[in-house]
Amino acid sequence: MKKWFPKTGMVLCAIAGMLLFAHCKKDKQDNPKDPSFKEFLIGKKWQLSAYTANPGMDDGEGHVITDIYAVFPACMKDDFTEYFADGTGAEDEGATKCAAGNPQRRTFNWNLKADGTLEGRGDDDFTGTYRAEKISNTSYKVTGTGHFKDDPAQRTIVLTFKAI
To answer: What is the mean pLDDT of the chain?
Structure first.
């Protein structure tokens, strides 16, 4: 398996995970999302609680990692995202920043189309098709199929977010 996931790449992977939802695109054949999904996202702080990849990724030391969230440093696990009704959003570093030079908050624009496509700030490290769905009144997940930058392997990733 191609070495893709060196230790320094974990930070980029985490950022990609947090940003994926805001860069969702949906296949035209899919059924439209419930219009209340937009309201569901607004007014909550969303924190990543799980992140898996199938097939897994090489950690650079000969191990295949499928539970990406398990290898995130604690400073990344307290980050959260907020979506606002005016079509803006914010990503926050949480109480513990991984790098002192990082801004505490970054803003972005987002839009949920009638066909269920969610557009907004994205990340160039993962290219694919994403589907977001509500799991409960306090959680949702994003399932993506695509590939990471510089790695042609097709993967399915699942990110789960919880309201905090």
So the answer is: 78
